[in-house]
Amino acid sequence: MNTAGKDHAQLSDVFNEDEARVNWHDETLWFVRAKRDKAAHNIPEWESLRENASQIKDNVLSNLHDYLISFEANAEKNGIKVHWASDAEEHNKIVHAILKEQGVNRIVKSKSMLTEECHLNEYLQHNNIEVIDTDLGERIVQLAEEPPSHIVLPCIHKKKEEIGELFHEHLGTPEGMSDPVFLTAAARVHLREKFITRKAAITGVNFAVAETGEFVVCTNEGNADMGAHLADVHIACMGIEKIIPERKHLAVFLRLLARSATGQPITTYSSHFKKPRPGQTMHIILVDNGRTTQLSRPDFRNSLKCIRCGACMNTCPVYRRSGGHSYHTAIAGPIGSILAPNLDMKKYADLPFASTLCGSCTNVCPVKINIHEQLYKWRQVIVKEGYADPKKAMAMKAMEFTLSKPGVYRSAGKTARWFLKNTPFAVNNKLNPWYKQRDMPEVPKQSFGEWYKQHKND
Amino acid sequence: MTSREQILSKIKTHQPELTSLPAPLTTVPGTVNLIELFSSVLVSIGGAVVEADSYEEIKNYIKQTFKDQKRIISTLKELADVSEQGWESQDPHSYENVDLAIIQAHFGVAENAALWITEELMHQRAVPFIAQQLAVVVKRSSILATMHDAYIRIGNAEYGFGTFIAGPSKTADIEQSLVLGAHGPKGMTIFLLP
């Protein structure tokens, strides 16, 4: 989908053209959310785990300077080369320089939302380096020339028939074949060849331990490990907020992560990389790219506690019905909507409005980020800074006028009820965005105010 | 100023006032049977549990169940009769044709059926991932309750690489249909020894 210049509402319109598909998307994600609930309810101490994780992350943000320095020292002691990148461009250049030095022009990459954020694939391809995404879902969207639509389930927007078609075209599977078992087996063969032949592997990082200098990468497929253990060069890319203080804190986060993400008790692999294997070189790139700016915003710095489980997306009524691509940023959904405006307030001014502020995201967040409150606060910042959609700003002004004058409010209500009742076509038309995908409600005969006046002596 | 200095100085300026770390969480005492919980979780994530009294029993099981597998490697001397030994120093890519790898774990975790395995128990890091099937031997007495106990057990242990493995490699990326055997092993068998 070409997202250029369109906002969340316009992109959702495109997604909403196929109602059956929206319903399917909605139900599939709700199914994942329900699995999360079941897994959480199996742990009686779930709430104390969340509270503990939240406090550990608060401590991380309050002591990030020292933790990064000790992580760097310990990682270097372990034989890992540590790099620092201020922004996406510097990150991409560092990766490119390492590959160039090794004479590598074909690489495998496991899931890393940071590299999505930095648009690393495009950068490397532009420099004649072939990147193969090895997570199945990411490989599928890569073949489709699309970005992932979900941080944990990258191709959740795709039907198996479409994947079958892609595989037929690119991997030579039989036409019309869409059985998930068959398609996964075909991808396994296709990607094994890449693992065996590529000399460099990029992975993301889920957690980096200041105390020991090790980093942990979690996957279900085993693709990060297949890539890293077979390659001569392993490059791990991480945002500076991925630091945790001590090894034992991994217990808390590994108990929360997969349960929150997919309802699994843990991911199949939770791999702790501490030293390169003999003959291998291992690099870590610590990336800022706006994170220190977010740290400077007291109202929004808590968003840096995120462990990228995706629970807030699965539960979000707006995400489920608008799809990940409508957020036109690497990280979609509620958490993405508070991260993106930090990077570019104008470009992502629409995202904090793509929410009902119902608070479900905050309730499922394993590190207790106050997501819906931050969305609400971003709206105020965005309107104040003059980045709000002019229609929205005008409606807000009209609303302010009406709500601050009781007389105007009463007569406006009466007028609206009369019109809704006698001229339904005045609102049930395409000019009214509330009419899309909705039937307007039946009109009450009187307002609550009028009813109360009549009945207060009953 | 280098990027490193720039990032660190920005953090120093903007990081909030120091908050303390919470008291460490520990396992909530319960009455669950750890072996039963471990086994049921493992089965639910696609693994198989075989309770064996001795290495003889494990060997018999391997001979019967994996008799069609061509290349079986093991890090366990006790299983020398049924597996290739002395393979440790080959190029990791050469294990691509391994049908079954049998290794040992330090311990298992009942709440999620994960097994803690470090580099010296794999001999080569690639082995538990590249083999078509994985089997792991662990003692019944080494099944711990939760991840909190797991990290207490790990403590300050030194390793170059260590991993928790819970069941066979899997994916649900195509319409949330669970498929075992994404890139790593298609099956995982755990031998529980006394």
From TrEMBL, chain A:
Keywords: 4Fe-4S, Electron transport, Iron, Iron-sulfur, Metal-binding, Repeat, Transport. SUPFAM superfamilies: alpha-helical ferredoxin (SSF46548), NagB/RpiA/CoA transferase-like (SSF100950). Residues 296-326 form the 4Fe-4S ferredoxin-type domain. GO terms for molecular function: 4 iron, 4 sulfur cluster binding; metal ion binding. It comes from the Bacteria. The keyword Iron-sulfur applies. GO terms for biological process: lactate metabolic process. PANTHER family: LACTATE UTILIZATION PROTEIN B (PTHR47153:SF2). This is L-lactate dehydrogenase complex protein LldF. It comes from Pedobacter metabolipauper.
From TrEMBL, chain B:
Pfam families: LUD_dom. InterPro entries: FTHF_cligase-like_sf (IPR024185), LUD_dom (IPR003741), NagB/RpiA_transferase-like (IPR037171). It comes from the Bacteria. Coiled coil: none annotated. Residues 74-193 form the LUD domain. This is L-lactate dehydrogenase complex protein LldG. The lineage of its organism: Bacteria, Pseudomonadati, Bacteroidota, Sphingobacteriia, Sphingobacteriales.
